[in-house]
Amino acid sequence: MSFIRVALDVPLPTLFDYRAAAATRDDIGARVLVPFGKTIAVGVIIELASTTSLPPQRVRSVLSILRDVPPLPADVLSLFKFCSEYYHHPLGAVVLNALPTRLRQRHALEGEEAAHHYRLTAAGLAVDAKTLPRRATIKLELLRLLRAAKAGIDEATLRAVAPRAMAALKTMTEQGWVERVARTREPLQSGAAALRVAPGPALTGEQLIAVATLRNADAGFAPWLLHGVTGSGKTEVYLQLLADTLARGKQALLLVPEINLTPQLEALVRMRFPDTPLVALHSGLNESERLHNWLAAQSGAAGIVLGTRLAVFTPLPGLGLIIVDEEQDASFKQTDGLRYSARDLALWRAKQRAIPIVLGSATPALETFYKALNGSYRMLALTRRVNAMPPVIECIDTRHEPLIDGMSQALLNALRITLKHGEQSLVFINRRGFAPVLMCPSCGWTSGCGRCSAKLVLHLQDQRLRCHHCGHQERIPTACPQCGNQDLKPLGQGTQRIENALARIFPAARILRIDRDSTRRKDSWQEMRRQIHAQEVDILVGTQILAKGHDFPQLNLVGVVNADSSLYSTDLRASERLFARLTQVAGRAGRGASRGKVMIQTDFPAHALYQALRRDDYPAFARELLAERRQAGFPPFVYQAVLRAEASRLETALEFLLGAARDGAKMAGAVTIYDPVPAGMPRRAGLERAQLTVQSRSRPALHAFLGAWRARLEPAAGRKVRWALDVDPLEL
Ligand code: ADP
Ligand code: ZN
Ligand code: ZN
Asked: Do 622 and 403 meet the contact criterion of CB atoms below 8 Å apart?
């Protein structure tokens, strides 16, 4: 063959042909350096070809085929192709986006850094630590670590010792104490004998049934919904399934919403499988760690890959099981660039590899629950908490009660009693900052963001007004910019205001605020979790960061402030999300010995959502929502895509969408095209935004339409409009 077709990271839906006489079939999936315009680009070989449609003089030659790491395997290339077709996104952008940054860069890897370990030489082993100066703390620590691991340690681990660890390591290498050695990648050992599994608790009856059902199922593709109420022990079921998979010598992919929020899961899995190499893949890693972990997955050396959404693209030659925890979580869907759903791609991957996939949740996405009800997925239920009674959930009617900084007398009393018993409480409010807006009572001015259709949030602690959408910030004005009034008022509550109020009302209580502001510093969240577990905290104030999968045994009271705003939102999924969030928060209460209590402040205590929540009855709530959706013709009964457009003027964006709608109408067929409308948030970071929804009862019809439509959008957009197609949008 004389040509290769290459995927490049450019926004064009084509592959690029190059001359490459030396390429063989084994190079499909390999990275290449090619000339592109006036630059050199990194691409991936997708196909070999004996001909090209380009005129011969225009075909350029490949510069080099990079063989430093193994080529991408065929199944991952098919996943990319599917992803590109399904999300109507250029293949090159899909492929390059999924690679670790280091593999996207021009200079080939030195091979070494990917596959090398550091270990002590004989001279290094002979060094007497006592002869080193006491202040050489980093060197001493490195020596200690390297002594303990005779086989060697990878760079990422050593780098984590201290900011200057690599410099110290370099000196030690020059001194002849340390050497870099090629790491041998042992393939996974198969057979249970080789694997130690630390003992876990005896399973509950429901867990036993779930595990046995999964074990006895036929081999091959099988999607399962593990619907387990909070605290029912879903993780233990995952661990059993992981053990089975590892015993068969296979790899498992465990996808989670945000690893940083749940570091204890990683620790738990490592502890249970002490001999199994586990790698994490998430955005918190630096580039060499990410590359290293990705290569360990690709080589088959990693038995377990624990990752966030981007991990769904990882090559896994021995893949035998996929688990998606909290499958309803919105963070599985990327909301810019390639707008993929990692959960949906995981399902596709499981099908392609003919393996089981387990979607776990206490409050599954309606799409998922619907599929479980109609039999496309099989359902496993854990209906009881393992160690505790479900919490008592009550609504506090706030219609006629005076609130103190947003909190009712009933909630404050409950906090006081919990405090007296020496137990922990949590006040949940899903808004950080002091108050969502600053207002002038005399003229009605409010603090708006100049670049967004959003209010600037008051952050008293650092004396700023901040936009949570575009990052803009400014000083708090001393007087109203409109009328000069000096008495500006914060309106509404945020975590900081609740924290202040609680400190005033309960001066002796130890209060800890947990939100994105207070956990920004690396490791601060870890330290906070330690404080909570060590009972150094009485009252927690926090956003949903706190709601996700944490086990705080002493937490007995949860108060929910300001939940109502989502009840009557125009967002199709607002109530589904609110139910999920409140279920998670409520699930924090009473995991220890005594029964927990949840108090929800609301103006609508009779609302069906709160009623279902009080009965802990997700299925009833979901059935009701499904009936509504069916009637209204919303997902999961129809399939949707949204065309989003941004421009400096709203009319420009709307005009483009209107043209697209007219153009689409000619070929719509079974697809309904709605009118263009300004986006839910019409202005963000200085750009006006509008959108156009298209939907159909038939997925193939929608995709046939999108394929043809998309090709015509490109030329129509011109330079003034930025647009994107969002398939299966979560937000409308
Ligand atoms: P979920 O993820 O379903 O909310 P978890 O997996 O976090 O629940 O389990 C809740 C708690 O119960 C955890 O502390 C876990 O260690 C414990 N647990 C789970 N299964 C068992 C069991 N079979 N015996 C005793 N404790 C268990
Ligand atoms: Zn004013
Ligand atoms: Zn803004």
From this structure: no
- Asked whether the predicted pLDDT for residue 115 surpasses 60, the reply is no
Residue in the structure block whose two tokens are 């602690």: 461
Of all ligands present, the nearest one to the C-alpha of 390 is 1
Indicate which residue's Cα is closest to atom 9 of ligand 1: 233
Query: Residue 132 above 60 pLDDT?
Result: yes
Across the chain, what does the average pLDDT equal? 91
Taking each helix axis from N to C end, the angle separating 650-665 and 699-717, rounded to the nearest 10 degrees, works out to 130
Q: How far is CA 590 from the centre of its chain?
A: 27
Read out DSSP for 367-416?
HHHHHHHTTSSEEEEE-S-SSSPPPEEEEEE-SSS--BTTB-HHHHHHHH
CA of 200 to the centre of ligand 1 (A): 10
Question: Among the listed ranges 165-179, 303-317, 338-352, 689-703, which one has the minimum average pLDDT value?
Answer: 165-179
C-beta of 233 in contact with ligand 1 (< 6 A) = yes
Which ligand 1 atom is nearest residue 229's CA?
3
> Which pLDDT score, from 0 to 100, does residue 185 have?
47
Using CB atoms within 10 Å of the CB of residue 394, give its burial: 0 to 12 exposed, 13 to 18 middle, 19+ buried: middle
With a CB cutoff of 8 Å and minimum separation 6, the contacts of 630 are 637
What's the confidence (pLDDT) of residue 326?
Answer: 95
Q: Say if ligand 1 is within 6 A of residue 203 CB.
A: yes
Distance 336 CA to ligand 1 centre (A): 35
The tokens of 690 are what? 């509008």
264 lines ligand 1 (CB under 6 A): no
Pocket test for ligand 1, best of 386, 533, 616 (most atoms within 8 A of CB): 386
How far is residue 242's CA from residue 225's CA, in Å, rounded to a whole number? 16
Q: What is residue 683's predicted lDDT score, i.e. its pLDDT?
A: 95
Cα 448 to ligand 3 centre (Å): 8
Lowest mean per-residue pLDDT among 24-33, 165-174, 232-241? 165-174
Say which range, 184-198, 285-299, 340-354, 658-672, has the weakest mean pLDDT.
Answer: 184-198
Atom of ligand 1 nearest to the CA of 387: 12
Q: Which of 160, 142, 114 is nearest to 288 (CA)?
A: 114
Residue nearest to atom 16 of ligand 1 (CA): 233
For ligand 1, atom 19, name the residue with the nearest CA.
233
